[in-house]
Amino acid sequence: MLNFNDIMETITMIQEENLDIRTITMGISLLDCADSDIDRSCEKVYNKIYEKAKDLVKTGEYIEKKYQIPIVNKRISVTPISMLVAVSGGDPVKYAKTLDRVAKDVGVNFIGGFSALVQKGFSAGDRELIEAIPRALAETDFVCSSVNIGSTKAGINMDAVKLMGGVVRQAAELTADRQCIGAAKLVVFCNAPDDNPFMAGAFHGVGEPDVVLNVGVSGPGVVRAALAKMPEDAPLNEVAEIIKKTAFKITRMGQLVGTEASRMLGVPFGIIDLSLAPTPAVGDSVAHILEEIGLEQCGTHGTTAALAMLNDAVKKGGIMASSSVGGLSGAFIPVTEDAGMIAAARSGVLGIEKLEAMTAVCSVGLDMIVIPGETPAETISAIIADEAAIGMVNSKTTAVRVIPAIGCKEGDELDFGGLLGSGPIMKLHSQSSCKMINRGGRIPAPMQSLKN
Amino acid sequence: MKAVITVIGKDMVGILAKVSGACAEMNVNVIEVTQSILDGYFCMVMIVDISKMNAEMDVLNGKLKDAVPEMVVHLMHEDIFNAMHRI
Predict the structure, then answer these.
(1) Mean of the pLDDT values across residues A34-42?
(2) How far apart are CA A380 and CA A19, in angstroms?
């Protein structure tokens, strides 16, 4: 028997608190598309993706109607393209254009996987792909790119870190006329997950099945609303309990949608990524949850502790609700995508150091941060190295997605529009990290890697 | 397959008739209705059988909203509630 309160709670969550399925992402393996001729390889890539994903958008829309739940994005992730480049050689941008074309033809919002995994070193195709990233992102609309430069098992590839600083800058430079959007579609990872459905970092890991459907659910607004109903003096363990219960409910809805979609598409269901992914919309902010817990503004002292509790409680609720929780699962802190973070960054309360500390306890890393346009490539590399070190030592995923605001001066803002939001330029240190970055080489894997 | 219809708004004549009329038009069977008037506000939850419905959910949703435009109407599939509130 359905309970009246349960019914009203669910309706309020969806209608007023922005509960939604953030994305259904179809992972497609392209390993069987590799060909020594790049044009033939591209053709095979197009055909396979089109064949597998042609009904993805239609199915998503059908489920939206059936359950009256918004599914915000329909996306595709593919095998890291560097592996195809290794076989075919040629200009990797051809692959990016193929991906862009097929994404437009099947009607998805983004396609991820213009990627390379170089945590321990470069193999054939990796360097070519990485060097082509800025052009690929400038010449396509929907393609997202990611590079894994470190892991707990392998340590950090500092040659790749050095390279990526320049790549991030170039990606921004080539799209300076479009709010430097290129850099917003590029993520540098440490410990990248194989089954992440969220962009820009999604790719289809090599250990995954041929085709798989992953679901990302979100709902910062729901969590904040649940906390707002609690007494002001409720102890933090009770706060954690409420977050856990709410995360449970959100995940169950994701599980329902994911199973239904995978059944309709005849594709195995992969994982649910239960991430509190904010949007710039009012009431859809992770920062506001932290403020609801009891901080005057996100970024002040206590933020890291509150975020650690939030992240952990979200995972615990999710784990109970589904046996296939994966991906990043936790709380995202993308600055430009979160109304509360934007406000905190504007007022100067939230700075890069605090964000870095927060990434040690949340599910990703320095995400969607606008940095000064004159930032040298080496400084970006150093930011990447810092972040990768946090991920490597703590056996967690960390990532860097910073956007150098080319041609902008302090006080200016970049506005990407849509889910990517807008944000002020965040101040960085001007002291050089050149000498360290130019050393290159590798940071050896930490003690944590020797668990065997 | 069942769905839940909720209707909330200022009380007036014929709400139940209009909502159930819209259901009947689409071959949707009303199984259970609970309604109450709280301080002049009409509040109704209706469980309906949609297995023989002759169109898709959003058509029914549109029809319900058209039937009582002055009320707040929500339509949801039963599976959602079961997934979220049952272990």
Answers:
(1) 96
(2) 35
What CATH number corresponds to the domain at position A402? Answer: 3.20.70.20
d(CA A255, CA A147): 29
Number of domains into which chain B is organized: 1
Chain B residues in contact with A15 by the CB 8 A cut-off are 74
Q: What is the CATH number of the domain that holds B38?
A: 3.30.70.260
B57 Cα to chain A: minimum distance (Å) = 5
Cα–Cα distance, A158 to A193 (Å, whole number): 20
Query: Residue A34 contacts by C-beta under 8 Å, 6 or more apart in sequence?
Result: A41, A83, A84, A87, A88
Residues A256 and A354 in one domain: yes
Reduced to 3 states, what is the DSSP secondary structure of residue A369? strand
Provide the domain limits for residue A278.
215-449
Give A175-213 pLDDT, tens digit per residue.
Answer: 999 999 999 999 999 999 999 999 989 999 999 999 999
- Among B33, B72, B84, B86, most A C-beta atoms within 10 A, so best to mutate, is B84
Q: Would you say how long chain A is, in residues?
A: 452
Contact between residue A176 and residue A407 where contact means Cβ atoms under 8 Å apart: yes
List of chain A residues whose C-beta atoms are within 8 Å of the C-beta of residue B61: 68
CA distance A318 to chain B (A): 12
Least confident window among A37-51, A95-109, B5-19 = B5-19
Å between A237 CA and nearest CA of chain B: 22
Mean pLDDT, chain A, integer: 93
Same domain, A232 and A343: yes
pLDDT tens-digit map of A220-252: 889 998 999 999 999 999 999 999 999 999 899
Does the structure show a pLDDT above 80 at A97? yes
Q: What is the pLDDT of residue B47?
A: 92
Number of domains in chain A: 2
Write the pLDDT tens digit of every residue in A318-367.
998 888 888 888 889 999 999 999 999 999 999 999 999 999 999 889 99
Residues of A in contact with B4 (CB under 8 A): 2, 7
Q: What pLDDT shows up at residue A239?
A: 95
* Pair A253, A69: CB distance under 8 Å: yes
Model confidence, pTM: 0.91
Cross-chain residue pair B80–A256, CB shorter than 8 Å: yes
Q: Does residue A309 sit in the same domain as residue A259? A: yes
Residues A140 and A256 in one domain: no
Interface-testing mutation among A1, A20, A68, A263, with chain B (most B C-beta atoms within 10 A): A68
Q: Which of A133, A194, A199, A127 is nearest to A157 (CA)?
A: A127
